[in-house]
Amino acid sequence: MNGKDEKYDFDSVRARAERGDITAANFMSDCYRDGHYVERDEAKAEAIILELAEKGHVASLGECYLYGHGGYAKDEKRAVELFERGVEEGDIVAVGDLAYCYRSGLGVERDDAKAVALYEKVIGHTSYVPVIHELAFCLCHGEGVQRDEKRAVELYQKAADRGCVPALVSLGACYSQGSGVEVDKAKAIELLGKAVEAGDADSYFYLGYQYANGDGVDIDKKRALQLYTKGANMGVVEAMEHLGVCYLNGEGTEVNQHLGILYLKQAAEKGSGSAIGHLRQLGIVYRREEEDNAEEKLKVVHGACMNT
């Protein structure tokens, strides 16, 4: 397992990766995939994993099978076998990957308790922030373990202090809602602001929502619109929906029905039930249809504004 005091900001991770640290190199891939600290580059993220797999890193090879990277055919069961092997070899990346499979039901039957057991086995002697953050999430939401919001906050803080961007968002939510800690709206805004600076997609929506509603900060509809736009451009469904409503209602911008409907359609296509509801109010009805490849897609079937 990796050391207890390692940092996971991009500069620290890159420095360790350049010295041959496999765990750091794998985490660099996550940064490029998610756009944390660097510009999002999914091709570069995949290339890193493929290179690590070619060098014999078992967990990275498992990720190739799990996601179908490069020329690897998707094979979730094969991925799980490789993650299990990595866990036996003491690879912290494999611990996180195998726990993810148990929590998601990929290649194995879903079992949140087994995922938590994997996290707990290593949590006392690792600084690997994905494991710390995910255990905190399970504790905060009672997934596979009895809810313990105070311990969740402690772990979120530990991960955030080491450079985990998602932990900034999660910790911000705790301060905003008073989960495991006293409500502190200003602290929540500060944490979300740091996540935005680091490029986290979800944080654009959450901070935008705070500005739109004056929750811990003065209402600023224009700032909310800017943040929603960035989140929507990064694929955040909630940001697409709220951006569409902003354009329809002229919040932070002039009314633009065309853009409003466009963003609502994008959110609906990604499965947003509330976006579908907004469209229905406009006379645009969506329904789910099974395609030949068994993937659900949303399609417009009729409506007054179909050609908008």
TrEMBL record:
Protein name: Uncharacterized protein
One Pfam family it belongs to: Sel1
Coiled-coil intervals: none
Species per Swiss-Prot/TrEMBL record: Palpitomonas bilix
